[in-house]
Design a protein that fits this description.
Helix content is about 45%, strand content about 5%. It has helices at about 55-70, 75, 85-95, 105-120, 135-145, 165-175, 185-190, 210-225, 240-260; strands at about 135, 150-155, 180, 200. The radius of gyration is 34 Å and the shape is extended.
């Protein structure tokens, strides 16, 4: 017969079996979950990296990562130096006052002009001359070359970017303040189109002159007279794994140099 193992008996308290916590209460029993098939419900996890995203989303993200990795010259990198949120809100608020007329407004104006001509007026012009935003790359370029533009606003996400590279240099040459703003769709909304690469103001009303003058001075200092912006290269940022690897190599190299110095 096997020998009986003699040991200390487990003391059972009135609250429950064994020592479970300080009080020994059986209300708080440990019940580990089982996440195998037929077990407990799986916990909520972040499944973003397992999602099969649409092709256009994947291309957008890959393109963004590619631009971070590749080095870009200052002429292209300057498009990433956009104005901040406060400046953009002030600028868009000002530009919204000078949005071009809609198709309905144009029809009304042409009808009024036709009636005026019919009434005997030679020029057929009714009311004050409208002050509107000028948009379209060719139109804005002509206005800048002729010196008629007072402020040029350029979208940062024009594709291909090479078609807009000459415009900032032309604005600097002519002494016309310019700036980069996020979103060609925001400029397009002002012009009643889907997107707009750039817009220009040729004149403003008296009540907006102070705000316009402040923005002009800020943009002249921030973009036209900023020499660092014309020399700063962009991109060249490696991934987090590569950064850690390079830091590890650098640390090993420093240790090796320290050993050689002590020898």
């Amino acid at each position: 017969m096997p020998k009986k193992v003699v040991g200390k008996k487990k003391v059972v308290t009135s609250g429950g079996a064994g020592k479970s916590g300080a009080s020994g209460s059986s209300l708080f029993k440990k019940s580990p979950r089982n996440f195998r098939i037929g077990g407990d419900i799986q916990p909520k996890r972040n499944l973003t990296r397992f999602v099969k995203w649409p092709k256009y989303v994947r291309i957008q993200r890959q393109k963004r990562v590619l631009f971070m990795r590749l080095k870009s010259p200052p002429a292209l990198n300057q498009f990433t130096q956009t104005i901040d949120k406060n400046q953009s809100s002030q600028l868009l608020k000002l530009l919204a006052k000078y949005s071009p007329e809609t198709t309905k407004d144009k029809k009304t104006r042409l009808q009024a002009e036709a009636e005026a001509r019919k009434g005997g007026k030679k020029d057929g012009f009714v009311g004050e001359k409208p002050v509107n935003l000028k948009f379209g790359l060719n139109h804005v370029t002509t206005l800048v070359e002729e010196g008629k533009a007072k402020l040029v606003v350029i979208a940062h996400d024009v594709d291909p970017l090479e078609m807009m590279v000459f415009l900032p240099a032309l604005c600097r040459k002519k002494g016309i303040p310019y700036c980069f703003i996020k979103g060609k769709a925001r400029l397009g909304k002002l012009c009643h189109t889907k997107t707009a690469t750039c817009v220009a103001l040729t004149e403003v009303r008296k009540e907006d002159f102070q705000d316009f003058d402040t923005l002009k001075k800020n943009f002249m200092a921030q973009f036209n007279e900023n020499l660092n912006q014309r020399k700063q290269w962009g991109g060249g940022l490696m991934g987090i794994k590569n950064q850690h690897m390079m830091a590890k190599r650098e640390k090993a190299r420093e240790i090796e140099l320290a050993k050689k110095a002590n020898m």
